[in-house]
Amino acid sequence: MAGVARMANVALEAADPVRLAEFYRDLTGMNIVYTSEDWITLKGPNGGTALCIQQAPGHQPPRWPDPASSMQAHVDFWVDDLDAAEEVALRLGATKFDHQPGTSFRVYADPAGHPFCLCLAD
Question: What angle, 0 to 180 degrees and rounded to 10, lies between the N-to-C axes of helices 17-28 and 82-92?
Fold first, then answer.
């Protein structure tokens, strides 16, 4: 069955959208293509799904892994070298969670506390 909608954006909330947009820009190589007072959009050089950061002054990051707290959302990124990608992510301000449930991916928090995974590409 064909869908009636296409993926447009993944939007994350943050108390400091500029900081979070810069983190994802530097992690992924995406470009900041739009900014307003409360919204920043990043896109890759070939288009595709955009990553958007929305101002949320009262944002409280999820706690992971905590069954009493929802993850809210997370983003997965393919990488060729987990160790090299981890080094970059940590240098840019990510935090690695103590609990790591697998060996082909690693779970981190971005500077606003959103979980994301670096996944070893096949």
Answer: 150
pLDDT of residue 88: 95
Confirm if 8 and 50 have CB atoms less than 8 A apart. Answer: yes
Residue 34's DSSP bridge partners are 41
pLDDT one-digit tens code per residue, 35-79: 999 999 999 988 888 999 999 888 888 887 887 776 667 788 989
Cα distance from N-terminal residue to C-terminal residue, the chain: 28
**DSSP-derived 3-state class of residue 114:** coil
Domains located in the chain, CATH noted: 9-120 (3.10.180.10)
